[in-house]
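User: I've been trying to design a sequence by hand for this structure and keep getting stuck. Would you show me what you'd pick, starting by listing the structure so we're on the same page?

Assistant: Good idea, let's start from the same input. This is the structure you sent:
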């Protein structure tokens, strides 16, 4: 079985080719952290979608260290750069382990259609089932018949149970019934699929807020987590949309999908910094086990390998 590190290496191939290979070329020809080197490095980092604030911090830090230590070898520069990239996830933006102390642990999955939301739910269900957890899925994206059918397929693939109803039913009622069933069946985890777009005049955010209010009537702490699914291939363009979700429904974690499909994987740094929300999981491909808990140090190491 392929290791997490190997999966990361493979999925980051496009970003590595676009960013790290360029950095290695620039670093290889320098022996001093001077302004010419910093200008070239800055340009490469911008192209990778890392984010202006983080890039400024990295350049300022390297400039300061360059003055302190003078002549450096290429390995030394790479070590400094990697340390600064890992540091971008400090101040509470790093991933944290899930607390399963209260059963069922309720996870609400939000995000626009097309980001890989339902697929991510299936992958998470499979991951938790393999870890010995009993998982129930709730098909609360009732505005798309295809979403209900898709979630049912993922439930079968992962071995999870599912609560579903007819298309057009009230999503909050589905979530309520699913939590009631999860409690009755002594489930460890309930994962709720929510709409990413509505075909009515109903406001999407208002619908999500209603689902969460209904859950709290049965279990005041629910949902324990609200995870926002983001598509890495949209880069900086997805941040404004993500910010609206984050402010409205108390998002406390990100699932970043399609990292294998972009040369701008640096957006993972920008997301954590700008939204002040930890990236919890990353999608690394199409297979059911292509999802991993996000580890900043492992991510940076795989990026530079």
């Amino acid at each position: 079985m392929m290791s997490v590190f190997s999966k990361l290496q493979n999925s980051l191939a496009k970003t590595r080719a676009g960013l790290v290979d360029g950095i290695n070329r620039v670093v290889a020809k320098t022996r001093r952290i001077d302004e010419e080197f910093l200008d070239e490095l800055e340009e490469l980092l911008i192209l990778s979608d890392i984010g202006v604030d983080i890039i400024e911090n990295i350049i300022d830090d390297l400039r300061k260290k360059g003055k302190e230590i003078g002549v450096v070898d290429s390995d030394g520069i790479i070590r400094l750069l990697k340390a600064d990239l890992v540091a971008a996830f400090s101040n509470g933006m790093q991933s944290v382990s899930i607390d399963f102390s209260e059963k069922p642990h309720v996870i609400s999955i939000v995000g626009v259609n097309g980001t890989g939301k339902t697929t991510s739910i299936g992958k998470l269900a499979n991951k938790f089932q393999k870890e010995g957890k009993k998982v129930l899925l709730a098909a609360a994206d009732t505005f798309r018949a295809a979403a209900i059918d898709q979630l049912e397929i993922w439930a079968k693939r992962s071995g999870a149970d599912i609560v579903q109803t007819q298309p057009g039913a009230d999503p909050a009622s589905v979530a309520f019934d699913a939590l009631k069933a999860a409690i009755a069946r002594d489930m460890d985890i309930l994962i709720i699929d929510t709409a990413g777009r509505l075909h009515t005049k109903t406001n999407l955010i208002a619908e999500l807020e209603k689902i969460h209010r209904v859950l709290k009537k049965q279990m005041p702490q629910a949902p324990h987590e609200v995870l926002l699914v983001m598509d890495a291939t949209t880069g900086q363009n997805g941040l404004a949309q993500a910010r609206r979700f984050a402010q409205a429904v108390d998002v406390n974690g990100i699932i970043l999908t399609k990292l294998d499909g972009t040369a701008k994987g640096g957006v993972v740094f920008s997301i954590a910094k700008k939204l002040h929300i930890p990236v919890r999981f990353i999608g690394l491909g199409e297979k059911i086990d292509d999802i991993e808990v996000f580890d900043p140090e492992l991510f940076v190491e795989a990026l530079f390998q």
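That's my pick for every position. To get oriented when you compare it with your attempt: The longest strand covers residues 225-231. Residues 52-69 form the longest helix (18 residues).
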